[in-house]
Specification:
Blueprint: E1 2-4, E2 10-16, E3 20-25, H1 39-44, E4 47-52, H2 69-83, E5 88-93, H3 95-107, E6 112-118, H4 137-163, H5 173-185, H6 188-200, H7 204-207, E7 214-219, H8 231-237, E8 242-246, H9 253-256, H10 258-270
Parallel strand pairs: 3-4, 3-5, 5-6, 6-7, 7-8
Antiparallel strand pairs: 1-2, 2-4
Helix pairs in contact: 2-3, 4-5, 4-6
């Protein structure tokens, strides 16, 4: 299914099941397909599951611009209005979590019942005077330079780290290769633009104003979004947030820890 945003971009989404709505927001360079181990579980438990392909990803259009978190937040708002969804649970992984946070900051909580930030790249990644634990600009530029030389090779090098297989997490080679191909399917232009927007966006003011129930889930072994910079700090910023940290979880815990994650999400939604 498709809908059009304010600038005429055609975005794809999936809509399964009936009941209270859950909107799944995918990781950077991934799309709605990443939630294949979550959506059937929640449909079977009586929920309506919607999953969005952001612009430049999956089946959605690849427009000239709009590859930033403010536009992503506005695209989410357009989808919620298109479907007239209310009492929504937002579940965002990685940059999807950043998009959820940005949506709440820009559009408020009128349509939102609760939010779950899973391995989210918030609150602020950039090294600044008031964010001494952040990552320096040269690190961002180094990654961009590697992509201009050989983007597929960079992602191939990351595939084992993504799942923290060195800690004994069991992931088949087929699953790893599928995830790699999903990552490489995103528009190269969108890949770089979103990466830069995620690095430069400061979510701290917005997170501190969240008043709906919030769940923060993060892996202690997350190499893509180090837990000390992201998950733990986010849990401290969001008032009353429930925090769960998976000791062996990497960034891809939606696969390696799918049963635990599904159970934790379900418990949170029911509570």
């Amino acid at each position: 299914m498709y809908f059009e945003t304010a600038d005429g971009t055609r975005l794809a989404y999936e809509d399964h099941g009936q009941g209270a709505p859950i909107l799944f927001l995918a990781s950077w360079v991934l799309n709605a397909d990443m939630w294949e181990y979550q959506i059937p579980f929640f449909v079977e438990n009586g929920y309506r599951c919607i999953a969005l392909d952001r612009r430049g990803h999956g089946r959605s259009d690849r427009p000239r611009d709009g590859y930033d978190l403010d536009t992503s937040a506005d695209d989410i708002a357009a989808l919620l209005e298109h479907l007239d969804l209310r009492d929504v649970t937002l579940v965002g992984h990685s940059m999807g979590g950043a998009e959820a946070a940005r949506y709440l900051a820009r559009h408020g909580e009128e349509r939102i019942a609760r939010v779950a930030l899973v391995s989210a790249t918030v609150p602020f990644l950039k090294l600044t005077d008031d964010n001494p634990g952040g990552l320096p600009e040269f690190a961002l530029q180094a990654v961009l330079k590697q992509w201009r030389e050989d983007r597929p090779h960079w992602f191939t090098r990351q595939k084992q780290i993504w799942f923290a297989t060195h800690l004994g997490n069991q992931v088949s080679e087929s699953q790893i290769e599928l995830t790699l191909q999903q990552c490489l399917s995103a528009s190269p232009w969108a890949t770089a633009q979103y990466f830069q927007s995620g690095y430069h966006t400061d979510h701290r003011p917005g997170l501190a104003k969240i008043s709906v129930p919030a769940l923060v889930v993060h892996g202690a072994a997350d190499a893509s979004a180090p837990v000390a910079l992201t998950g733990r700090r986010t849990a401290e910023l969001v008032p009353g947030a429930v925090y769960k940290e998976y000791p062996t979880g990497g960034h891809g815990l939606y696969i390696t820890h799918k049963h635990q994650l599904n159970d934790d999400l379900l418990e949170f939604i029911k509570s």
